[in-house]
């Protein structure tokens, strides 16, 4: 497994991984907005909002990615996406370990992500990696459905 910081040329790879990984949320009560994102939206986030991404490769095949932004000493990441054919093999954990190591090496002291509280496997995944709930919010989505989100934080030291 190796990891690469994505460039603007990798937007199609990022989008494909994200669509595959988030497809399981297409028919839930409150579908993920990730499924509405287009390649151009990701490109704009890179160019105008200082978003970055890391892609995980198994040999030369992209198998996972996450997107992130840095704000002072905090790094906020989202859209963690692992190819559905290889989920459950530890790729997500390796990707986050890579992110943590390189964040720490570059003076980042805090990692932050938002997690749907009803997706218990994701809550457990981040909790098992040392993330703790630092905030909770209830959002009202356009279809008037309520979505409970936890902000999960990990301090690097």
TrEMBL record:
Keywords: Acyltransferase, Transferase. The keyword Membrane does not apply. Residues 1-153 form the N-acetyltransferase domain. InterPro entries: Acyl_CoA_acyltransferase, GNAT_dom. One of its GO terms (molecular function) is acyltransferase activity, transferring groups other than amino-acyl groups. It holds the Pfam family Acetyltransf_1. It comes from the Bacteria. This is GNAT family acetyltransferase. The lineage of its organism: Bacteria, Bacillati, Bacillota, Bacilli, Bacillales.
């Amino acid at each position: 497994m190796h990891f690469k910081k994505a460039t603007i040329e990798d937007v199609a790879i990022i989008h494909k991984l994200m669509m595959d990984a988030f497809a399981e949320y297409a028919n839930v009560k409150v579908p993920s907005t990730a499924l509405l994102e287009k390649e151009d939206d990701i490109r704009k986030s890179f160019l105008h909002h200082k978003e970055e991404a890391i892609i995980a490769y198994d040999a030369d095949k992209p198998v996972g990615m996450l997107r992130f932004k840095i704000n002072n000493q905090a790094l906020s990441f989202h859209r963690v996406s692992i190819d559905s054919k290889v989920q459950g093999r530890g790729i997500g954990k390796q990707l986050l370990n890579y992110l943590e190591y390189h964040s720490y090496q570059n003076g980042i002291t805090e990692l932050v992500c938002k997690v749907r509280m009803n997706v218990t496997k994701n809550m457990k995944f981040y909790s098992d990696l040392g993330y703790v709930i630092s905030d909770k919010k209830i959002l009202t989505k356009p279809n008037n459905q309520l979505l409970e989100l936890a902000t999960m934080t990990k301090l690097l030291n």
